Amino acid sequence: MAIDKVKEINIFLTKKNFNDFFTFLKLQEKVEIEEVKDVEGLDFFKDVNIEKYDKIINEIDFLLNQFNKFEKKKNFIADFIPERLNIEYKNLETIVNKFDFDSLYKKVFGLVRKNEKITDDIKSLKKDADKIKPFISVGYEIKKIDTLKKLKVIFGSLKKSNYQKLLNEKERCEPILISEDEINCYLIIAFLREDKSFYELLKNIDFNEYDFKDFSGKPKTIYENLISKIDELQKMSDDIETEIKKVSKNLDNLKLLKDYYVDKKNEEETKQKVIESKYLIFIKGYIKEKDIKIFEQKVKENFDKIYIFYEEPKDLENVPVSLNNNKFVKPFEMLVNMYGYPKYSDFDPTPFLTPFFILFFSLCFGDVIYGLILIFGCMLLINIFNVHEKDRNFFYFFMILGVFSSIVGVLTNSWAGDLLSFPNLAIINLLEEKPGETPGLIKMLIFSLAVGFVTQIFAILLKAFDNIRKKKILDAIFDQISWVISLVGIVLYIVFMNNPFLSKVFLYIFLSGIILIVLTGGRSSKSIIGKLIGGVVSLYGIVSSYGFSSALGDILSYSRLLALGFSTTVLGVIINTIARMFGTGVIGILIIPLILLAGHGLNIFMGLLGSFVHPTRLIFLEFFGRFYENGGKKFSPFKFKSERIVIKNQ
Amino acid sequence: MSEVYGLVFAILGMAAVISLSGIGSSIGIGISTMQTAGVLSEKPHLYGKLFVITALPGTQGFYGFIELFWIATRIGLFGGIPKIPVNTGMQLFFIGLGMGFVELISAVWQGKVSAAAINLVSEKEEESGRAIILPGLVEIYAVISLIAAILVTSFVTAGL
Known about the structure:
The two termini of chain A are 31 Å apart. In chain A, strand 6 (173-180) and strand 7 (184-192) form a beta hairpin. Chain A is an alpha+beta fold. In chain A, helix 13 packs parallel to helix 21 (560-580) and helix 17 packs antiparallel against helix 18 (500-520). In chain A, 58% of the residues lie in helices and 12% in strands. In chain A, strands 1, 2, 3, 9, 10 and 11 form a six-stranded antiparallel sheet that branches. Chain A has a four-stranded antiparallel sheet with strand order 6-7-5-8. By secondary structure, chain B is mostly helical. Helices cover 82% and strands 0% of the residues of chain B. In chain B, helix 1 (2-42) runs parallel beside helix 4 and helix 3 (59-74) packs parallel to helix 6. Chain B starts with a helix and ends with a helix. The relative contact order of chain B is 0.21. At the A-B interface, helix 3, helix 12, helix 16, helix 21 and helix 22 of A face helix 2, helix 3 and helix 6 of B.
């Protein structure tokens, strides 16, 4: 099926070859390297140097931090699309080798340190300037002010609210108000040198004394000098910035450098998983069966004296899983990836969930015009942002969903709400209600529940299939087939209630299923009474994973398909109704397109949100709940480790 | 005279559903937005991933709007002043009130779950796919009450 067959690979080689071979292995991207277990008496490879790479990565990060502010900002949409770069490994190595990182680092590091010092200086000068600024109107040499024998003269600031308190002590001092701003007043105070307790007073009113000992000259000249000094330093700092900006043209190459060294570090870390002896290296891992042939050939072309042998995997729980689906189903692997991979011994649920997810999504989103917008929007995004092949599946996912949403739109007569209307093409018209006929809403509700019923039966059959595959045929019959019989029986009984013959047939089918469940549901119990009680209780799904209560709940849960589809349509209708209120006058022609654009844009966004979240939940809970167990590990071959760089195969 | 009261009750129902669900959504979005703002202060590059989760509790407000519109259409409010029997009006009032409460409370709780999911993404960026499903588990009850309200509205106004 759709899980790739995997083999264990064992590689022996001489130490001399090791580094070359390891890089070769990385570029092949075919082998997942596993840590070797049971290493009695043997040692893991020790000759690694991770610290060296840590250091250089740190240094690169330092430069990147400096350069980042000069980088052009990406716009909102481009932010969603990962940046990718195709490059050959050889070219990458050439770039890295040519790049004179050490001297660039030294240069920028020096500049940054210098700049930091200048910024500190500017800060302290500014502080001084701010202090002296209120006193520039004082026309005396600052050093000569406090030279009197009996009087002490000090500078300082005081909260305005406390100024009066100082004035109250006028017989002890002589305050001179120089200037004031909103909060403080700036003073020169003279008082007797012998009045030691005056400081006490100043402290009590929160007087803040300024120390101008280091300055000489008149306050105005001091202030002007400071300002010109600051300007000078600022200019120096700006020059340094320009110089850093000049070398920041290296940013792109620097990013490459970082990717290169991050990968090198990863390579060193991976090396610790292999075993070394005095002359030999032993590598253990997994490889996909279909890759073996090419891999062998490549090894032969490039190396000799390498011995490789393959084994069937033994420890099935831990075998890495790689899904393999065709182009149409592949985008839906995203959902399996979100929930968790299957185990190697299980099967890939992707092909089974794909049609159901498409159906759920298109029922929720179902609108012709919205669907078309989704298709062309994705196409446009791919082309405008030149999305890398690796990331295109995400867009294909929504393009496929767009196609089916359009089809559902036609069938339910939803064209951007009721912007257009082709009722003849529709099967169920959601908003329609004719006397004597079932309203469209009810029809859709019944259809949603029917979809739920079919999905549940299919999921139970998948579990049965899984059990049969694992040779647990009795489990398949007692636990799954019995439920299929009774569920199908009771539903068909209700459908054909008016036909006395068919209703009887389906009633018996239903009852036979029930009897089967009651007789076998408690078979794990030891005593006969336990078996009987277990059987009855299992009808309700208390002891087993499935029962009538969960069946009913799960099927009713699908009614959300109606609700979301309906809300997408009705919101569209509301927007159109609002737009039509503006009539066909000049105002209408101007405003209506705006309302339609903004309104339907919002509706598409909301619709996408709901139509993704709810079907995903229906798949994860109601569908997977019946048959699927995750717990597998994704197959991740040893390769160049980078989100951004894609190494081209030579 | 009773037909006037019928209309009054119907409009009270519309008011109840739109205001309760709107209040709920604004509280819910408020909770999730605060969380997002906090995370963004440390990790601004997550804006795109978090935006969707943050917006999830906003749907309840729209569900309320849809039910309001549905009642208005069913009683023919767009075609002028309709005449509605008082018992139908009261039925519509209780439908709106009931649905409004579910929307209100589910939106608040969805906001809390969104906040938790946002934390999850901020710790583990690769989990954004799963994180977006969690608030959806709360939303189902808002959806169910919307279906119920729409269906019952259709039933009680069938004769108008």
